[in-house]
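As described in the Methods, two query proteins were run sequentially through the folding procedure within a single session, without resetting any intermediate state between them. The first query and its resulting structure tokens are shown here.
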Amino acid sequence: MRGTFLETYEAKMNKNYKWLALALLWVAFFLQQGTRQVFSATLSSIQGSLGVTSAQIGLVATVFTFAYGLSVPFAGVAADLLNRKWMVVSGVFVFCLGIFASGFVAAIGLLIVTYGLLNGFGQSFYYPSATSIIGQLHKETRATALSILQMGLYAGIIGCSAAAGFLAESGADGWRTAFRVFGGIGILWAVALAFLLKDTKPGENGQAASPAGDSTSGKPSLKEAFAVFVANPSAVMLAVGLGMMIYVDVGFKTWMPNHMQETFKMAKGTAALNAVLWHYLGAFVGVTLGGRISDRLAAKRPSVRMETNMVGLACAVPFIVWMAYAPSLTACCVAMALFGVFRGVYDSNLMASLFDLIPSRYHASGAGIMLCFGFVFGSTSPVVLGLLKERFSSATGLATLAAFYLAGAAVIALARRRTYAKTISSKA
């Protein structure tokens, strides 16, 4: 009797574990994305405290993005070779240590080391491992689960940005307090993950066998994973689209708080909150709708995931331009919200699209390779927008971001029309 009860309880826990794992990884993603935004929310305070130019402060974000992009493919392959749980745990610990240390720096060079290099390197460990764990645990609910994870990004950026902005107003060293608080919380969460998260090896999904055509025997090398990825034209074009999106995302998150502060004469905390609140509230709506709709249609129309990516990027273009040149705060917030809706639509199917294109044994390494291109390309955005701000205006720099979303949509549309059907048929 007791044995039967324990067996039933264990079976129920195993069945529900995929949602517990999602919750644990959601909080980690909240911290990962939220701690990134601590920098942008306190940018003007850091700039004044350290006495640096717009281009110099933009270089910090560029180094972070470049360091993340350069190390993420190795982190992805390491996740497939080693233990995905401990990749997540160590990544959260390292990047939060970098955030915590950033609260003590006295010069821009040290901030580049702590926030740019240490933080960027640590953050690269998290995403390929986390999304591959979720991809393995969730099969029928994959886009929905990844959309829920994506909400951690939005919530983290909104919550941490608001808190950091208001802490920055508490005094000359308020920005340092923001880094110390969020870095310390993240270190504690890394400890919690070490005890609560289980490892999910390639090929395990908790419910069903691997999809047809997904070989899970052996462990892929970086060379093997790269060869598989570049031989897949649809995956390559998906990566190019991501690069365009990351360029926009990094530039927007870095400079929008400063743009609103200067354009609408807002306090630091209020500007930091408004610069992300409306955009990511819209993204909440978009990612929810995009994930649910695509999951329902994917069985009959597999290409719907990539089509969702394309529509999301294309439809956001006019709202980026409107946001940059909005004549009033209300108009700017409305534009950011609508930009956010379609950004969320794109986000809802990004990793689900990739996982449809490549075998499951390459999910983490494939995600790492795609993120590498996206973040290395996107790393130039903060410096470019800083230079455009000094030469022209922040509005001009932000408006140029629309061209990159349009280019991303065009590349994904080309993949859908020319290579997608062949890729899916060869995988089956």
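Immediately afterward, the second query was submitted; its sequence and tokens are:
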Amino acid sequence: MSASSFDLVVIGSGPGGYRAAVLAATRGLSVAIVEKDAWGGACLNRGCVPKKAWYQTARLLRSAQRFAGRGVAGSLRPDLAGAWRQQREIVQAVRASYLDYLERLGVARRTGSARFVAADRIEVGGETLVAGHFVLASGSRPFLPPALRTASRVLTTDELFEKPLPSGRRVALLGSGAVGVEMAFILSALGLEVVWLTGREPLSGARFSEPGKKRLRQALAVHGIAPRTRSRPVGCLEHGGALELRLSDGVEHVDWLLAGTGRIPNTDGMGLESAGVALTDEGFVRVDDAQRTSNARIFAIGDCANPAMTANHALAEASVAVAGLTRPGTAPAPRPWVPEVIYSALELARIGQTEDELEEAGREYAVGFSAFAANPAALGEGDTEGYVRLLVDSESGALLGCEIAGAHAGELVHLARPGASGETLLARLARERFNHPSRAEELLNAAEGMVGRWALDTE
């Protein structure tokens, strides 16, 4: 069996694995990346990238309801097949750019399943790869309840974006998490009749504030979208090109079903026991603050190591892991603020700590608030729903957390990042010079309402 040696081997080519490979290569390390499935991982092929394309289409279609008031005549109609083709074209374009960059950086690519045979080597196909360090970025896979595993018209998000959709307009959607909340809005806007079935209230376990979640429910209700809570599938029968769902509270007949019922970390079948890599009881790789596993030469990032299971966390953890392996012995960098975003009838974004977390820790904080209701840019766009909410340390004025609701919240939240050394983020926001009119000005308004309390310099 042939063997090749590298400074670093990355297992998994999703956003975290890709970033780890790029960062290491740009720092002069010899790097190989291994992928057993589609290059780019779940995010590019079956997740955030194609979903974001559909979300933009859904927003355009829903905004058409306000066209008449803007002096625009005519109407739009959804074309689901066209939307499906468009997201595939975007995925292919991004993947081509991604692979081209890896090639230009000199990152070696291997296709196949990786399995550890020792602490310093893996087997991929008929080749052994030996490395000084490894980064596990093996991702996750959808979980499907046993009652639904026999029907071909039951889809996970893997099939939703990778295969042409089944026929029929009446669709059951399972899930109270991000997938359920986002796809309820997107699929409805794309012309489908959605029967949304959840075991509990949407986003019950999410870190968004209760007022934010309430506003999202209200925004969904405006479009006639509401979950049927405490409704769980107990059986499924496929016949005549349709599905009969037996539920805990009755029966539903639909054309097909999309299951957003959680994901499982990909940590099995990789020979991790041969490398001395420990797992948690839930099957995630156990890591420390530097993303290092129980084997000091192996790091783990993203879905296989973090129950948050978002591309944003994987990208942030890639930076932490590469810093740890390129600067061994140094103290781990402060944990980055990682944004969390929901793309639905109302966009929600947050970063930093929540009010519940601060209260549980007994930490005193003040709140800065500003709404988009009178924001000139929002009024010009005809979409004034939402707000900016800042959580600030009562003693120092340091920003502790931020939540934004409304259009472009996922972009605006990046303004709530740590400031320069020795300067609080609140002071930096108060001294920023913003474009006018812009939605970003509401961060300034929320900050300016509090700067007097700490006598912060705004000049």
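The two ends are 67 Å apart (CA to CA). We note this only descriptively and draw no conclusion about the first query from it.
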